[in-house]
Predict the structure of D-2-hydroxyacid dehydrogenase.
Amino acid sequence: MLTVLHGDSRPPGMRGIEDTAVVRYTREDGLAEALSGADALFVYDFLSKAVPGAWHAADRLRWVHIASAGVDPVLFPEIRDSDVVLTNSRGVFDRPIAEYVLGVLLAFAKDFARSAELQSRKRWLHRESERLTGKRALVVGTGPIGRAVAGLLSAVGVHVSGIGRRARADDPDFGTVHAADDLLEHLPEADFVIAVAPLTEHTKGMFDSRAFAAMRPTARLVNVGRGELVVTSDLVRALRDGVIAGAALDVFETEPLPQDSPLWTMENVLVSPHMSGDFVGWRDALVEVFADNFRRWRADRDLRNVVDKQLGYVPSTR
């Protein structure tokens, strides 16, 4: 039996799976009951934090799939220590998020927000803009999303390097990858710092007051990873005090972003509501990834995107 955890709407395109298996749909409040007797769980509502609280009812669960690249909502001690296989939707959002990153870098360089504001006031004010060509970007996180970001930025002339688990000088996408322990040493080299790392005990709060102090005063931070990578209060102070020049934020420690957050009204901040990877058709794409893995699971074949539960992400082959 397959249990599907959904939010306001059920996942599309499930007819083929329903024809071959017993499927039980549930919202958060019914998850514990729906987990009893289930062999597999599809966490379509990937923002839900209900799975840990309902885990006691998982009496025969063998596989959990989450409809996102990040697995932190379903990676808790009980599942980490169990034999349950965990898979994610790695690959769906790589290119869309890379396009978002390129877009916000262009928005900063070409001052689009200021142009829109001046247009709303019918004010003609000529300015000069920055070039992206020759700028330096440090991509923190060298998984598929980080590699897609590196590819697009390199194509427009940005010099890209990465931060990963281990240092290497011959990476096919980044050229140079620095070790995560050396982050503070390499932050001063970057005009743009792009956070795409998964959320783990090692990455939580990695962008704090020390990190911002190490960055150039002209640098901008782009966070498309997880909100908890950034200490929000430290970021607000760094932006207010001119420690860094700006930030583009698609994810936040608290979502939705509270109405009283100063980030809403800062002129040097671009806010988007956790949508950097959400292209037209993304829900169907997520179900297609799950459906492929479901067929593999039923046929006792190797699953795609198996998460290393100790690392907290799918290990890269590069």
User: Anything to note?
Assistant: The chain has a mean pLDDT of 97.
